[in-house]
Amino acid sequence: MQNERHVVVIGGTAAGLSAASKAKRNLPDLKITVFERSGFVSYGACGLPYFVGDMIKEANDLVTFTADDLINKRGIDTYIKYEVTKIDRLNKTVTAKDLITREIKEVSYTELVIATGASPFVPAIEGINLDGVHYLRTVENGIEIKRRIQNNSVKNAVIIGGGFIGLEMAEELKLSGLNVTLIEAMPRLLPFLNKDFSDSVKDTLIKNGVNVELSTTVTEICGCNNKVTSVRTKDEKEFKADIVIMSIGVKPNSELAKDAGLDIGYKGGIVVNEYMQTSDKDIYACGDCVQMFNLLTKEPTYVPLGTTANKQGKIAGSNLSGEKESFKGVLGSGVTKVFDLYIASTGLTEEQAKKAGYKVATTKITKGDRASYYPGSEDNHLYLVFDGETGVILGAQAIGSFSVAGRINVFVAAITAGMTVPQINELDLVYSPSVAPVYDPILIATAQAIKKVKR
């Protein structure tokens, strides 16, 4: 019977709570228990840089539901500051430890959801454990960083890693009045972007007073009395640092699953099928801890994003409650902003498309986001990747104004639907001088792409 079932969820943020909430909505009498290692559940992790920069004043502003809300309003038993340390598949139990009292709890399950997320990469460099070296993954991380930078003694910040979080933190720390240096090992920022677009990101940072160091790595974090004082790089430069933000990527938290004998795949992600089931049919996994696959190439990939985590969690919850929903794959769609420059992309890069065997062609255009005569028009720069023989759209990138996000979303839909550039060019897009030009940047870009498609 339904009330004899007990679903245990390991992880109480995006994926885990999406699974729990969907299953509970479909089966109100289903017993669900959630264990979360941190002190917060159901929060917007992507808003953490803006909380640190004080655009968002209070940590609780990021929180949608508290543990008490989940217990009292949704009927989901929720335990915070509890770490699950073992999964016993034979006896169908999990062992959980109260991180405050150290009490050990053993809980039986009929079905299990693993939504353990990801952890920051911790490089093996001298000084990595000094006071003042931080990572930004949890609300607690954000609170500690914010407390430190609001201390008037903090003047110099070094950010190691130029991904989305690194760039957003560079902006927020600079706007907070700190001297900021961004160090990136690659020869350009966001290397999945067209080179001209990457250069524009770098130029925007420099224009706004951020020191950008490319093609170099950190060899030592220096300190005095156990507190960070500077950072040294392989090219023998040294940068003052009262705080260091490590942002060089994340890895799936798949150790529990591995120890339980579940299949582990690409980059250490838990292997799941399209229904979010692991190699054990009674154990589901979703979010940043799992291996994903690319919607176009069908090859394994790992793109840890909040949108994907929520979607996968909902699918797991649906299937737990008797439905049959499947996950279709990811395109790696993303958007961010660096000061006044917005950056968005989706789908394959030129290099990825070539590796996948497509006959790749590309085009790049610049077009205003409103009518040229309307005040405030800003340029959108669009870059398309498509198959030169079939015209099928494979990828799109854009930099420019706020409106690039909406235009890239059109390409997300087009790629998902398998559309060609001529078909996209026929779309009946909206027009108003205050919103878009009569020939939208999307239409200009696809018109140029059509010229490169073999007929």
Distance between the termini: 61 Å
Please tell me what the overall shape is: globular
Task: Show unreliable segments.
Answer: none
How would you classify the quaternary structure? single chain
Supply Rg.
24 Å
Kindly report the spatial arrangement of strands forming the biggest sheet.
3-2-1-7-18
Rounded mean pLDDT is 96
Structural class: alpha/beta
Beta-strand percentage range: 25-35%
* Extended strand count: 25
SS field, number of helical segments: 12
| Major beta sheet summary | 5 strands, parallel
Q: Please estimate the helix content.
A: 25-40%
Walk me through what this model shows.
The mean pLDDT is 96. The protein has 455 residues and is of the alpha/beta class. The chain is globular and about 65 Å long. It is 25% helix and 27% strand. The protein is built from 12 helices and 25 strands. The longest helix has 15 residues, at 306-320. The strands form 7 sheets. The protein has a 5-stranded parallel beta sheet with strand order 3-2-1-7-18. Strands 9-16-10-11-12 form a 5-stranded parallel beta sheet. Strands 21-22-25-24-23 form a 5-stranded antiparallel beta sheet, with helices on both faces.
